[in-house]
Amino acid sequence: MKPNGYFGKLLEVNLSTGEINKKQIPEDDLKNFIGGRGLGMKILWDKLSGPGVDPLSPENPICYMPGPFSGFPIPSASRTCIVTKSPRTSPVNSEYKHASTMSYSNIGGFWGPELRFAGYDGLVVTGKADKPVYIKIEDDKVEIKDALKYWGMGTDQFDVDFYDELKDHKFETCYIGPAGENLVPMSSIIHTAARAAGRGGTGCVMGSKNLKAIAVKGTKQPNVAQHKEYLKLLENIRQTFMEEDEDVKSWRYGGTANALTSSSKNGTQAVKNYSEGAFKEIQEIGTEANRKKVWKRDFACFACQLSCKKSGIAKGSYAVMVHDGPEYETGTMLGANLAISDLAGLHKLIVVADDYGIDIISLGNTLGFLMEAHERGLIDKEYLDGINLTWGNVEAALEMIHKICKKEGIGDKACRGVKYMAEQIGNQSSNFAIHVKGHELAAWNVPVDNEWWSVCYATSNRGACHLNGGTPKAQDEMVLNDSLGACSFAAQWYKDEVSYANFLSAITGIKWNEEELRKAGTRIFTLEKMFNYREGFEKEDDHIPEKFFRNEFSYGEHKGAIVERTDFKQYMNEYYKKRNWDIETSRPTNEVLKDLNLEFTIS
Amino acid sequence: MEENKKRYSRRHFLQDMIFGGAGIIVLGSFGVSIITDEKKQVIKAIAVDFDKCTGCRTCETACAASNHKVKINGEWVDGLGNPFYSNINVHHFNPDVDIPSTCALCPDAPCIDACPVAPDLRTGRKALYRDEELLTIKNDKERCIGCTQCAQACENLRGGVIRPNDKTKKPERICTLCNGNPQCVKYCPYGALDYIEMPNDRDLTNLAPKEIAQRLIKKYYNIDITEAEL
Predict the structure, then answer these.
(1) ipTM of the complex
(2) pTM of the predicted protein model
(3) Interchain CB distance below 8 Å, A300 and B56
């Protein structure tokens, strides 16, 4: 039985045994967890035998999850959420050696829609191949194939060379680079040489399975319950975008890079390892500079009207072909956060990091931490293998990236991120290690708008996440975007008649309203929380880095900005109350769990 | 075929006007003179402005939806737009360029030339023929023998847009112009597609996506790349 809007089919590949199964997804799971991040979380819960599983063991499943919108030309619904157990996070206390949170990271482009064209609502990979392999999916035909010759190849070259073997550009591919192969914990999964499921170490889990790549191509599409209603909604939402309001133009012009300058102005940018909220040289690396000097082309994901991906050629201190960037995150983390304003140098760092397949947010954060530790004299050049890692030093940052991705010398430690480095360096360096639960913060600084950002980072289920949202409502909505396959950048246009709820109703034939959809978001977020709680993450893990209580911005419009401890405590208590979670432990109450049909998490 | 390659190499290019269906690159500005078919009728087809294309594939979904209608409660309406069935196809390349490719309604139509089915005595049509109304290329499924000569001609000499059906081997993916209101043009969010009278140039010919990609990569990124490297 094929439910409307879905195939009801999960592709399961076990790389240890070579078994390939096409499994029916329970209809209740589709209804309760929708798809993408939500359905991925439910599968993760079901597949793992219990808490404490080593995320790099064969048992840990990695789920590649499009959503119910994927594969339909609904504008900006191209995203695939990758869900697994995190190799990045750890709690303050736990009885389990390998305790870690769940992890998710999503990727735009064309891969998720193509997996649906092949006839699946998700792909789950378990086990570990005894040599490097890739998975090739062509509708019903699924093969595990040798990838030995590609092991060690950078993502850019692989993106090109892989097609020599596939012999058809209609395959969509996602893959890891050398960082993932080397089991660098902060590795990403790359698609089209630049789009990345960057966060949470999904590339490392893929590498631990000896899985280099997944290629997929298909000819199918799910059924839609209310065909005419769906067509009407599609026509309306297309017209909404076609009107080309200022926001549409702005996305097309600069993508997220527009925020480089605006965030700096607002004091919300990560600058010099989060010491400041504004970067004086931000104009050097902002949208205007890139439009003038670097960008040549705009690119969109499947059926997207915003085209926020930019490519071009950077020239100057380095000459590089740019597949994408800087975006706000990559430009801030490898630019402002390291006090780097050399535009070509910044591009070089981004391109090299993407080629290795590493999370640029965690990478930039780690480099910033080391620069600060170096500046403070807690470590010297010798500790850094002779690299003169100082603010603004592109060459030194580049050398360090090579070391991290190859796990050479200092890189073998640094690749584990700031929490680990602070433990190694000691001397209270943890005071400026900018992470939550072991996962580094992203490019949005905390002290200005600190209620939003404190809650956002402290409570995100994959460890610090800028896309988590600063209120329960915002969080539940973000969960829904990630579960539907929709892009949060376009969510603002889906309102009133052309709401996500109406699209989902037309597609599935199940009548969804805003309230029910919100509840599904709450359900998914709460299941993630229960997963983490089961691993041992409690209230003390919902913290923000010490630096935000100790460091005042020293210049700019927001000079003196800092977070008050009492305020933070109050934000968190209010947050737990709104969620109806236990204020002492942070555990969702049984009442909440029952109301959300999550009884199965009560042990 | 050898002769064709020579013709390509003789071509000179105007910098910015790159057209295409499957990639006609045009010299000179719009509409100086216009392409006509054998009977001097003006050919209108889908032109691509590669500067504007972002590779979003909305055109594919609009094409597939319009050309593969479904019957709902007795009424024929657009399908769901599975891009696999689209007549226009967007090809991605690295370095980043996207090439929407569709039938260019070539005035000399090598696909029709290649069709071995004898012309009908009354209409003069082979199995593959040019329709009088919109000058699109059509296939008479009744008379088509599924020899795939047309697809091979398009593949070898032009953009390679014609694909034989997996089972019947009869040609598919030929642009219908959606009865004069091409849906790919209507729904392209970036205004990268246009339905226009094709400007005339003796060398004006449909190119393969890889060949267009090569030229655009040179243009945008100043990178020389061979077809084999794409």
Answers:
(1) 0.96
(2) 0.95
(3) yes
